[in-house]
């Protein structure tokens, strides 16, 4: 993803947009709170106000560049839309988030929807608990 993605998403290229997109793309982490993004940019010498971070994230979400999660016990978490479906495990103590994908679960959900005459369009599955350390 680069400047062209901003253009394709119908967004003008601005420094905050470029910097936030770059951070989301280059970080090893995949899930970020808005505060975290703000802090990481500061550490990297990029001064963008927290209000701007929120505004850009809202614009990115509307443009389909990122996904916003409202996980329990935490603030909203954002991640890049990488085009592949996955589910999440959330540690309620530490906030750690781990992604997983299980074909059997995916398959069962489709079957269950079918049994109920339900037209499945999307789903999100989040497991809450604690990781053993
Ligand atoms: Zn994820």
CATH superfamily name of the largest domain? Winged helix-like DNA-binding domain superfamily/Winged helix DNA-binding domain
What is the molecular shape?
globular
Low-confidence segments, given as residue ranges, are none
| Topology-level CATH name of the largest domain | Arc Repressor Mutant, subunit A
Question: Main β-sheet: number of strands, strand sense, barrel status?
Answer: 3 strands, mixed
Number of helices: 5
Residue share in helix: 40-55%
Into how many domains do the coordinates divide?
Answer: 2
Known CATH architecture of the largest domain: Orthogonal Bundle
Number of E-state strands? 5
CATH class of the largest domain: Mainly Alpha
Q: Averaged pLDDT, please? A: 92
Order of helices and strands: HHHHEEEEHE
What is the CA-based Rg, rounded? 17 Å
Describe the protein in words.
- This protein has 133 residues and is an alpha+beta fold.
- The chain has two domains: 1-81, Orthogonal Bundle (Arc Repressor Mutant, subunit A); 84-133, Dna Ligase, domain 1, CATH 3.30.1490.
- 41% of the residues lie in helices and 16% in strands.
- The protein has helices at 3-8, 15-26, 34-43, 50-62, 103-115; strands spanning 66-69, 77-80, 87-91, 97-100, 126-129.
- A hairpin with a 7-residue loop joins strand 1 (66-69) and strand 2.
- Helix 3 packs across helix 4.
- The radius of gyration is 17 Å and the shape is globular.
- The N and C termini lie far apart (35 Å).
- Bound molecules: zinc ion.
- Zinc ion is lined by residues 30-31, 79, 86, 88, 99.
